[in-house]
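hey so i finally got around to running both of the ones u sent me last week. sorry it took forever, my laptop kept dying halfway thru and i had to restart like 3 times lol. anyway pasting them below in the order u listed, first the sequence line then the C-alpha coordinate line for each. didnt double check formatting much so if smth looks off just lmk and ill redo it

first one:
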Amino acid sequence: MKRAVFLDRDGTINIEKEYLYKSEDFEFIPGVPEAIRMLNQAGTMVVVVTNQSGVARGYYTEDDIINLHRHITRELERSDAYVDVWLYCPHHPDGRGSYALPCNCRKPLPGMLQEAATRYDIDLDNSIMIGDKLADIEAGQAAGCRTILVRTGYGAQVEQAIGPQVTVCDDLLSAVKFLL
Protein backbone atom coordinates (compact mmCIF):
# COMPACT_ATOMS: atom_id res chain seq x y z
CA MET A 1 0.00 0.00 0.00
CA LYS A 2 1.10 3.54 -0.73
CA ARG A 3 1.57 6.46 1.60
CA ALA A 4 -0.09 9.71 0.52
CA VAL A 5 -0.19 13.31 1.52
CA PHE A 6 -3.69 14.67 1.00
CA LEU A 7 -3.78 18.40 0.35
CA ASP A 8 -6.65 20.81 0.53
CA ARG A 9 -6.51 23.24 -2.39
CA ASP A 10 -7.83 26.71 -1.53
CA GLY A 11 -5.85 28.29 1.29
CA THR A 12 -3.30 25.47 1.31
CA ILE A 13 -1.97 25.32 -2.27
CA ASN A 14 -3.27 28.63 -3.56
CA ILE A 15 -4.08 31.97 -2.02
CA GLU A 16 -7.65 31.85 -0.74
CA LYS A 17 -10.08 33.55 -3.11
CA GLU A 18 -13.79 32.94 -2.69
CA TYR A 19 -15.08 30.50 -5.31
CA LEU A 20 -11.88 30.41 -7.35
CA TYR A 21 -12.35 28.89 -10.79
CA LYS A 22 -10.56 31.17 -13.26
CA SER A 23 -6.93 30.38 -14.04
CA GLU A 24 -6.08 34.09 -14.27
CA ASP A 25 -7.11 34.47 -10.59
CA PHE A 26 -4.95 31.55 -9.41
CA GLU A 27 -1.83 32.29 -7.30
CA PHE A 28 0.34 29.77 -5.50
CA ILE A 29 1.07 30.37 -1.85
CA PRO A 30 4.85 30.93 -1.79
CA GLY A 31 6.84 27.70 -1.52
CA VAL A 32 4.05 25.38 -2.67
CA PRO A 33 5.66 24.14 -5.92
CA GLU A 34 8.86 23.38 -3.98
CA ALA A 35 6.90 21.56 -1.27
CA ILE A 36 5.06 19.39 -3.80
CA ARG A 37 8.32 18.65 -5.64
CA MET A 38 9.86 17.55 -2.32
CA LEU A 39 6.95 15.14 -1.76
CA ASN A 40 7.32 13.82 -5.31
CA GLN A 41 11.06 13.27 -4.81
CA ALA A 42 10.38 11.45 -1.53
CA GLY A 43 8.11 9.02 -3.40
CA THR A 44 4.99 10.19 -1.57
CA MET A 45 1.75 10.24 -3.50
CA VAL A 46 0.15 13.72 -3.64
CA VAL A 47 -3.65 13.78 -3.68
CA VAL A 48 -5.64 17.02 -3.72
CA VAL A 49 -9.08 16.82 -2.07
CA THR A 50 -11.14 19.99 -2.40
CA ASN A 51 -14.72 21.04 -1.67
CA GLN A 52 -16.10 22.96 -4.64
CA SER A 53 -19.61 24.00 -3.62
CA GLY A 54 -19.53 26.74 -6.26
CA VAL A 55 -20.73 24.07 -8.69
CA ALA A 56 -23.80 23.29 -6.57
CA ARG A 57 -24.44 27.01 -6.11
CA GLY A 58 -24.30 27.63 -9.89
CA TYR A 59 -21.21 29.89 -9.79
CA TYR A 60 -19.16 27.68 -12.11
CA THR A 61 -19.15 24.22 -13.69
CA GLU A 62 -17.25 20.99 -13.17
CA ASP A 63 -15.46 21.75 -16.46
CA ASP A 64 -14.24 25.00 -14.90
CA ILE A 65 -12.74 23.02 -12.00
CA ILE A 66 -11.06 20.56 -14.37
CA ASN A 67 -9.65 23.41 -16.46
CA LEU A 68 -8.27 25.15 -13.36
CA HIS A 69 -6.64 21.91 -12.22
CA ARG A 70 -5.05 21.54 -15.66
CA HIS A 71 -3.69 25.08 -15.31
CA ILE A 72 -2.27 24.31 -11.85
CA THR A 73 -0.71 21.12 -13.26
CA ARG A 74 1.03 23.12 -16.00
CA GLU A 75 2.27 25.66 -13.45
CA LEU A 76 3.63 22.88 -11.22
CA GLU A 77 5.41 21.30 -14.19
CA ARG A 78 7.53 24.47 -14.43
CA SER A 79 8.95 23.48 -11.02
CA ASP A 80 9.26 19.77 -11.85
CA ALA A 81 6.39 19.02 -9.49
CA TYR A 82 3.08 17.21 -9.95
CA VAL A 83 -0.14 16.17 -8.24
CA ASP A 84 -0.91 12.47 -8.65
CA VAL A 85 -4.68 12.73 -8.19
CA TRP A 86 -7.19 15.60 -8.15
CA LEU A 87 -10.49 14.91 -6.37
CA TYR A 88 -13.28 17.40 -5.71
CA CYS A 89 -16.74 17.47 -4.19
CA PRO A 90 -19.21 19.57 -6.22
CA HIS A 91 -22.11 19.03 -3.79
CA HIS A 92 -23.76 21.20 -1.18
CA PRO A 93 -27.07 20.61 0.63
CA ASP A 94 -28.17 24.17 -0.22
CA GLY A 95 -27.18 23.86 -3.89
CA ARG A 96 -29.15 23.41 -7.09
CA GLY A 97 -30.38 20.40 -9.02
CA SER A 98 -28.52 17.12 -8.82
CA TYR A 99 -25.72 18.76 -6.78
CA ALA A 100 -28.09 19.67 -3.92
CA LEU A 101 -27.66 16.62 -1.83
CA PRO A 102 -25.92 15.42 1.25
CA CYS A 103 -22.94 13.28 0.29
CA ASN A 104 -20.03 11.53 1.94
CA CYS A 105 -17.40 13.32 -0.15
CA ARG A 106 -17.84 16.83 1.23
CA LYS A 107 -15.26 17.52 3.92
CA PRO A 108 -15.42 17.17 6.94
CA LEU A 109 -16.64 13.74 5.83
CA PRO A 110 -13.85 11.42 4.68
CA GLY A 111 -15.37 10.22 1.38
CA MET A 112 -12.74 11.70 -0.98
CA LEU A 113 -9.88 10.28 1.09
CA GLN A 114 -11.56 6.87 1.30
CA GLU A 115 -12.26 6.91 -2.45
CA ALA A 116 -8.60 7.65 -3.15
CA ALA A 117 -7.51 4.89 -0.76
CA THR A 118 -9.71 2.34 -2.52
CA ARG A 119 -8.82 3.42 -6.06
CA TYR A 120 -5.09 3.87 -5.57
CA ASP A 121 -4.24 1.39 -2.79
CA ILE A 122 -3.40 4.09 -0.22
CA ASP A 123 -2.73 3.23 3.42
CA LEU A 124 -4.73 5.88 5.26
CA ASP A 125 -3.15 5.06 8.63
CA ASN A 126 0.25 6.03 7.23
CA SER A 127 -0.98 9.06 5.29
CA ILE A 128 -1.35 12.72 6.19
CA MET A 129 -4.06 15.32 5.52
CA ILE A 130 -2.87 18.94 5.31
CA GLY A 131 -5.30 21.84 5.18
CA ASP A 132 -6.28 25.25 6.48
CA LYS A 133 -9.77 24.55 7.84
CA LEU A 134 -11.34 22.47 10.58
CA ALA A 135 -13.20 20.53 7.87
CA ASP A 136 -9.85 19.41 6.41
CA ILE A 137 -8.57 18.26 9.79
CA GLU A 138 -11.83 16.49 10.64
CA ALA A 139 -11.88 14.69 7.27
CA GLY A 140 -8.31 13.51 7.78
CA GLN A 141 -9.05 12.31 11.30
CA ALA A 142 -12.25 10.54 10.21
CA ALA A 143 -10.22 8.72 7.54
CA GLY A 144 -7.58 7.69 10.09
CA CYS A 145 -4.81 9.99 8.81
CA ARG A 146 -2.39 12.15 10.74
CA THR A 147 -3.28 15.80 10.26
CA ILE A 148 -1.48 19.10 9.86
CA LEU A 149 -3.11 22.52 9.94
CA VAL A 150 -1.38 25.25 7.98
CA ARG A 151 -1.75 28.89 9.05
CA THR A 152 -2.30 30.07 5.46
CA GLY A 153 -5.85 30.62 4.18
CA TYR A 154 -8.17 30.32 7.18
CA GLY A 155 -5.67 28.37 9.29
CA ALA A 156 -4.53 31.20 11.55
CA GLN A 157 -8.19 31.94 12.37
CA VAL A 158 -9.07 28.36 13.33
CA GLU A 159 -5.82 27.40 15.04
CA GLN A 160 -7.27 27.98 18.53
CA ALA A 161 -10.00 25.40 17.85
CA ILE A 162 -7.47 22.68 16.99
CA GLY A 163 -6.64 20.06 19.58
CA PRO A 164 -3.10 19.23 20.73
CA GLN A 165 -3.00 16.06 18.59
CA VAL A 166 -2.85 18.20 15.41
CA THR A 167 0.47 19.58 14.22
CA VAL A 168 0.38 23.24 13.16
CA CYS A 169 2.80 24.69 10.60
CA ASP A 170 3.09 28.12 9.00
CA ASP A 171 2.52 26.90 5.43
CA LEU A 172 2.74 23.87 3.16
CA LEU A 173 6.50 24.15 2.69
CA SER A 174 7.15 24.15 6.44
CA ALA A 175 4.70 21.23 6.85
CA VAL A 176 6.54 19.17 4.21
CA LYS A 177 9.91 19.99 5.76
CA PHE A 178 8.49 18.85 9.11
CA LEU A 179 7.28 15.57 7.55
CA LEU A 180 10.49 14.82 5.67
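and the second one:
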Amino acid sequence: MEAVKNTAKAIADLVEEGYRIVIAHGNGPQVGMINNAFSEYAKKDPKFPFMPLSMCVAMSQAYIGYDLQNALREELLDRGIKKSVTSLITQVIVDEKDPAFLRPTKPIGPFMTEEEAEKARANGMVVVEDAGRGYRRVVASPKPQDIVEIETVKTLMDAGEIVIACGGGGIPVVKEGNHLRGVGAVIDKDFAASLMAEKIDADIFVILTAVEKVAIRFGKPDQEWLSELTVETAEKYIAQKEFAEGSMLPKVQAAISFASSRPGRKALITSLEKAAEGLSGKTGTWIRS
Protein backbone atom coordinates (compact mmCIF):
# COMPACT_ATOMS: atom_id res chain seq x y z
CA MET A 1 0.00 0.00 0.00
CA GLU A 2 2.89 2.33 0.78
CA ALA A 3 4.49 1.50 -2.57
CA VAL A 4 1.36 2.29 -4.58
CA LYS A 5 0.91 5.62 -2.77
CA ASN A 6 4.41 6.67 -3.82
CA THR A 7 3.80 5.36 -7.34
CA ALA A 8 0.52 7.26 -7.61
CA LYS A 9 2.23 10.55 -6.76
CA ALA A 10 4.88 10.04 -9.45
CA ILE A 11 2.28 9.13 -12.09
CA ALA A 12 -0.01 12.02 -11.09
CA ASP A 13 2.93 14.38 -11.67
CA LEU A 14 3.09 13.14 -15.27
CA VAL A 15 -0.68 13.49 -15.74
CA GLU A 16 -0.39 17.11 -14.60
CA GLU A 17 2.34 17.59 -17.20
CA GLY A 18 -0.17 16.56 -19.88
CA TYR A 19 1.05 13.04 -20.70
CA ARG A 20 -1.43 10.35 -21.78
CA ILE A 21 -0.44 7.29 -19.82
CA VAL A 22 -0.78 3.52 -19.99
CA ILE A 23 0.77 1.66 -17.05
CA ALA A 24 2.25 -1.81 -16.68
CA HIS A 25 3.65 -3.17 -13.41
CA GLY A 26 5.63 -6.08 -12.03
CA ASN A 27 4.48 -8.87 -9.72
CA GLY A 28 7.71 -10.76 -8.97
CA PRO A 29 7.38 -10.98 -5.18
CA GLN A 30 3.59 -11.28 -5.15
CA VAL A 31 3.09 -14.04 -7.73
CA GLY A 32 5.68 -16.18 -5.97
CA MET A 33 4.03 -15.67 -2.59
CA ILE A 34 0.58 -16.51 -4.02
CA ASN A 35 1.97 -19.66 -5.60
CA ASN A 36 3.76 -20.66 -2.38
CA ALA A 37 0.62 -20.07 -0.30
CA PHE A 38 -1.49 -22.36 -2.47
CA SER A 39 1.25 -24.99 -2.50
CA GLU A 40 1.49 -24.95 1.30
CA TYR A 41 -2.28 -25.25 1.69
CA ALA A 42 -2.34 -28.17 -0.76
CA LYS A 43 0.10 -30.05 1.50
CA LYS A 44 -2.48 -29.87 4.33
CA ASP A 45 -5.50 -30.69 2.18
CA PRO A 46 -4.94 -33.40 -0.46
CA LYS A 47 -8.29 -32.53 -2.09
CA PHE A 48 -7.21 -28.96 -2.74
CA PRO A 49 -6.71 -28.48 -6.51
CA PHE A 50 -3.36 -27.57 -8.05
CA MET A 51 -3.20 -23.81 -8.72
CA PRO A 52 -1.46 -23.12 -12.08
CA LEU A 53 1.10 -20.32 -12.19
CA SER A 54 -0.98 -18.57 -14.87
CA MET A 55 -3.86 -18.31 -12.37
CA CYS A 56 -1.47 -16.89 -9.76
CA VAL A 57 -0.41 -14.23 -12.29
CA ALA A 58 -4.09 -13.37 -12.83
CA MET A 59 -4.66 -12.99 -9.09
CA SER A 60 -1.63 -10.76 -8.64
CA GLN A 61 -2.68 -8.68 -11.66
CA ALA A 62 -6.11 -8.06 -10.16
CA TYR A 63 -5.11 -7.18 -6.61
CA ILE A 64 -2.12 -5.00 -7.53
CA GLY A 65 -4.24 -3.25 -10.16
CA TYR A 66 -7.00 -2.71 -7.59
CA ASP A 67 -4.58 -1.06 -5.15
CA LEU A 68 -2.85 0.98 -7.84
CA GLN A 69 -5.98 2.28 -9.56
CA ASN A 70 -7.54 3.36 -6.26
CA ALA A 71 -4.37 5.08 -5.05
CA LEU A 72 -3.96 6.89 -8.38
CA ARG A 73 -7.64 7.89 -8.54
CA GLU A 74 -7.42 9.32 -5.01
CA GLU A 75 -4.19 11.20 -5.72
CA LEU A 76 -5.67 12.74 -8.88
CA LEU A 77 -8.87 13.79 -7.08
CA ASP A 78 -6.77 15.37 -4.31
CA ARG A 79 -5.21 17.49 -7.05
CA GLY A 80 -8.57 18.40 -8.55
CA ILE A 81 -8.17 16.09 -11.55
CA LYS A 82 -11.21 13.97 -12.48
CA LYS A 83 -9.87 11.12 -14.57
CA SER A 84 -10.94 7.48 -14.64
CA VAL A 85 -8.36 4.75 -13.98
CA THR A 86 -9.06 1.20 -15.14
CA SER A 87 -7.18 -2.06 -14.47
CA LEU A 88 -7.53 -4.61 -17.23
CA ILE A 89 -6.97 -8.33 -16.73
CA THR A 90 -4.64 -8.92 -19.67
CA GLN A 91 -3.62 -12.12 -21.45
CA VAL A 92 -0.38 -12.24 -23.41
CA ILE A 93 0.27 -14.86 -26.07
CA VAL A 94 3.56 -16.79 -25.94
CA ASP A 95 5.09 -19.54 -28.06
CA GLU A 96 4.89 -22.93 -26.34
CA LYS A 97 8.15 -23.87 -28.13
CA ASP A 98 10.01 -20.83 -26.74
CA PRO A 99 13.43 -22.08 -25.51
CA ALA A 100 12.86 -20.10 -22.29
CA PHE A 101 10.74 -23.01 -21.05
CA LEU A 102 13.94 -25.10 -20.96
CA ARG A 103 15.96 -22.47 -19.06
CA PRO A 104 14.11 -20.69 -16.22
CA THR A 105 15.48 -17.18 -15.56
CA LYS A 106 12.63 -15.05 -14.13
CA PRO A 107 12.96 -14.40 -10.37
CA ILE A 108 9.72 -14.62 -8.38
CA GLY A 109 8.82 -14.68 -4.71
CA PRO A 110 10.78 -13.39 -1.71
CA PHE A 111 14.55 -13.33 -1.32
CA MET A 112 16.10 -16.31 0.48
CA THR A 113 19.22 -16.95 2.49
CA GLU A 114 21.68 -19.52 1.13
CA GLU A 115 20.33 -22.08 3.61
CA GLU A 116 16.72 -21.42 2.53
CA ALA A 117 17.78 -21.66 -1.11
CA GLU A 118 19.30 -25.11 -0.52
CA LYS A 119 16.05 -26.33 1.07
CA ALA A 120 14.03 -24.95 -1.85
CA ARG A 121 16.30 -26.75 -4.35
CA ALA A 122 15.80 -29.97 -2.40
CA ASN A 123 12.04 -29.49 -2.93
CA GLY A 124 12.49 -29.24 -6.69
CA MET A 125 12.60 -25.47 -7.17
CA VAL A 126 15.13 -23.79 -9.44
CA VAL A 127 16.87 -21.17 -7.27
CA VAL A 128 19.63 -18.76 -8.29
CA GLU A 129 21.57 -15.86 -6.82
CA ASP A 130 19.85 -12.62 -7.88
CA ALA A 131 22.26 -9.77 -8.73
CA GLY A 132 24.01 -9.78 -5.34
CA ARG A 133 20.76 -9.30 -3.41
CA GLY A 134 20.16 -12.86 -2.21
CA TYR A 135 18.66 -16.05 -3.64
CA ARG A 136 15.32 -16.36 -5.44
CA ARG A 137 13.25 -18.96 -7.19
CA VAL A 138 13.26 -18.63 -10.98
CA VAL A 139 10.65 -19.79 -13.51
CA ALA A 140 10.36 -19.81 -17.29
CA SER A 141 10.02 -16.37 -18.90
CA PRO A 142 8.97 -16.70 -22.57
CA LYS A 143 8.93 -13.67 -24.85
CA PRO A 144 5.52 -12.04 -25.42
CA GLN A 145 4.17 -12.44 -28.96
CA ASP A 146 0.86 -10.58 -28.84
CA ILE A 147 -1.59 -8.98 -26.38
CA VAL A 148 -5.10 -10.41 -26.49
CA GLU A 149 -6.89 -7.35 -25.05
CA ILE A 150 -4.83 -4.69 -26.87
CA GLU A 151 -7.86 -3.24 -28.71
CA THR A 152 -9.58 -2.74 -25.35
CA VAL A 153 -6.49 -0.92 -24.07
CA LYS A 154 -6.65 1.41 -27.09
CA THR A 155 -10.40 2.01 -26.69
CA LEU A 156 -10.03 2.95 -23.02
CA MET A 157 -7.03 5.16 -23.80
CA ASP A 158 -8.92 6.94 -26.60
CA ALA A 159 -11.78 7.52 -24.12
CA GLY A 160 -9.36 9.48 -21.94
CA GLU A 161 -8.86 6.84 -19.27
CA ILE A 162 -5.58 5.91 -17.60
CA VAL A 163 -5.18 2.19 -18.27
CA ILE A 164 -3.31 -0.35 -16.16
CA ALA A 165 -2.62 -3.41 -18.32
CA CYS A 166 -0.15 -6.28 -18.81
CA GLY A 167 0.35 -6.41 -15.05
CA GLY A 168 3.12 -8.80 -14.09
CA GLY A 169 3.89 -9.22 -17.79
CA GLY A 170 0.36 -10.44 -18.50
CA ILE A 171 -1.18 -13.88 -18.04
CA PRO A 172 0.87 -16.21 -20.29
CA VAL A 173 -1.34 -18.11 -22.72
CA VAL A 174 -0.92 -20.18 -25.88
CA LYS A 175 -3.46 -20.29 -28.71
CA GLU A 176 -5.19 -23.58 -29.50
CA GLY A 177 -7.64 -22.61 -32.22
CA ASN A 178 -10.05 -20.21 -30.54
CA HIS A 179 -9.05 -21.44 -27.09
CA LEU A 180 -6.45 -19.69 -24.93
CA ARG A 181 -4.63 -22.02 -22.51
CA GLY A 182 -2.63 -20.69 -19.57
CA VAL A 183 0.95 -21.96 -19.21
CA GLY A 184 3.35 -22.21 -16.27
CA ALA A 185 5.50 -19.12 -16.70
CA VAL A 186 5.87 -15.45 -15.78
CA ILE A 187 6.46 -13.08 -18.69
CA ASP A 188 8.99 -10.33 -18.05
CA LYS A 189 7.03 -7.13 -17.39
CA ASP A 190 9.55 -5.00 -19.32
CA PHE A 191 9.18 -7.03 -22.54
CA ALA A 192 5.38 -7.06 -22.23
CA ALA A 193 5.31 -3.32 -21.55
CA SER A 194 7.60 -2.66 -24.53
CA LEU A 195 5.30 -4.67 -26.81
CA MET A 196 2.26 -2.82 -25.47
CA ALA A 197 3.99 0.54 -26.01
CA GLU A 198 4.62 -0.44 -29.65
CA LYS A 199 1.03 -1.58 -30.22
CA ILE A 200 -0.56 1.58 -28.79
CA ASP A 201 1.89 3.68 -30.84
CA ALA A 202 3.45 5.40 -27.80
CA ASP A 203 6.02 8.15 -28.30
CA ILE A 204 8.03 7.33 -25.17
CA PHE A 205 8.49 4.09 -23.25
CA VAL A 206 9.50 4.69 -19.62
CA ILE A 207 10.89 1.97 -17.35
CA LEU A 208 10.84 2.97 -13.68
CA THR A 209 13.19 0.98 -11.47
CA ALA A 210 15.30 1.23 -8.30
CA VAL A 211 18.18 3.23 -9.79
CA GLU A 212 18.29 6.68 -11.38
CA LYS A 213 20.42 5.62 -14.35
CA VAL A 214 21.81 2.56 -16.07
CA ALA A 215 25.45 1.81 -15.25
CA ILE A 216 28.27 -0.25 -16.68
CA ARG A 217 30.65 -2.05 -14.34
CA PHE A 218 27.83 -1.79 -11.78
CA GLY A 219 28.96 -2.07 -8.15
CA LYS A 220 32.66 -1.87 -9.04
CA PRO A 221 35.08 0.95 -8.14
CA ASP A 222 35.07 2.20 -11.75
CA GLN A 223 31.27 2.10 -12.11
CA GLU A 224 30.01 4.53 -14.77
CA TRP A 225 26.48 5.97 -14.95
CA LEU A 226 25.09 6.43 -18.46
CA SER A 227 22.86 9.32 -19.59
CA GLU A 228 22.54 8.51 -23.30
CA LEU A 229 22.78 5.24 -25.20
CA THR A 230 22.30 4.44 -28.85
CA VAL A 231 20.77 1.06 -29.66
CA GLU A 232 24.13 0.02 -31.14
CA THR A 233 26.09 0.95 -28.00
CA ALA A 234 23.53 -0.70 -25.72
CA GLU A 235 23.79 -3.92 -27.73
CA LYS A 236 27.58 -3.78 -27.44
CA TYR A 237 27.33 -3.56 -23.63
CA ILE A 238 24.90 -6.48 -23.61
CA ALA A 239 27.39 -8.56 -25.60
CA GLN A 240 30.01 -7.65 -22.97
CA LYS A 241 27.60 -8.88 -20.24
CA GLU A 242 27.49 -5.50 -18.51
CA PHE A 243 23.90 -5.91 -17.29
CA ALA A 244 22.66 -8.46 -14.76
CA GLU A 245 20.31 -11.14 -16.07
CA GLY A 246 16.90 -10.95 -14.44
CA SER A 247 17.63 -7.38 -13.31
CA MET A 248 18.88 -4.59 -15.61
CA LEU A 249 19.41 -6.76 -18.71
CA PRO A 250 15.71 -7.22 -19.63
CA LYS A 251 15.09 -3.50 -19.03
CA VAL A 252 17.80 -2.49 -21.50
CA GLN A 253 16.67 -5.14 -23.99
CA ALA A 254 13.05 -3.95 -23.74
CA ALA A 255 14.15 -0.33 -24.21
CA ILE A 256 16.17 -1.33 -27.29
CA SER A 257 13.18 -3.20 -28.74
CA PHE A 258 10.92 -0.16 -28.45
CA ALA A 259 13.50 2.43 -29.55
CA SER A 260 14.34 0.44 -32.68
CA SER A 261 10.73 -0.40 -33.58
CA ARG A 262 10.16 2.84 -35.49
CA PRO A 263 12.17 6.02 -36.22
CA GLY A 264 11.73 8.72 -33.57
CA ARG A 265 10.78 6.41 -30.74
CA LYS A 266 12.85 6.57 -27.55
CA ALA A 267 12.99 4.89 -24.17
CA LEU A 268 13.89 6.17 -20.72
CA ILE A 269 15.15 4.14 -17.76
CA THR A 270 15.14 5.92 -14.40
CA SER A 271 13.85 5.68 -10.82
CA LEU A 272 10.22 6.16 -9.86
CA GLU A 273 11.01 9.30 -7.87
CA LYS A 274 12.82 10.85 -10.85
CA ALA A 275 10.19 10.10 -13.52
CA ALA A 276 9.18 13.72 -14.15
CA GLU A 277 12.79 14.93 -14.05
CA GLY A 278 13.78 12.15 -16.43
CA LEU A 279 11.11 13.06 -18.97
CA SER A 280 12.22 16.69 -18.80
CA GLY A 281 15.76 15.57 -19.70
CA LYS A 282 17.39 16.24 -16.33
CA THR A 283 18.29 12.65 -15.41
CA GLY A 284 17.84 8.98 -16.34
CA THR A 285 19.25 6.95 -19.23
CA TRP A 286 17.78 7.62 -22.67
CA ILE A 287 18.03 4.93 -25.36
CA ARG A 288 17.46 5.99 -28.97
CA SER A 289 17.94 4.39 -32.37
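quick thing i noticed on the 2nd:
The chain has two domains: 1-105+140-202, 203-289.
anyway thats it, ttyl
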